[in-house]
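input
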Amino acid sequence: MMNIITEILNLIDYILVGQNNISIILITIVAGIFGFIIAAIPLTIQLLEIKNNDVIKKINENILMKKKIFDNYINTLKSAFVLVLFILLLEVFKNHMQTYILIEIFIFVFYISIVCKFLNNLYTLIGILKELTLTYLDIKNDK
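output
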């Protein structure tokens, strides 16, 4: 049991303060996704301007539904920003974290929750884009 705890603490140590490229890789991925999201906003606006489509007409008539679509873009951008900011702060204070194990564990749990929130927001946004694209192509989505 003690070996498992030691291994978990070593893993947390490696991810948070170790000499690895995890932070750089995550920031690069988030930056790319950030650019994708910015580029997808005009695509969504263009898809919502389609004429002679009943689904698009219903979305455009319902202001709350339209607002929810763009709120998902904003939420994904916010979570990307928070994740990048957290990683940057993590890099700055990396050397001072090993003094207290409980603080390091708390920061790791917070780190994982930020990554999960970002991925969840991104997954939701991809679903919205998929539905809009399938609506544009006039394809019925059964899943």
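quick obs: The chain has one domain: 22-136.
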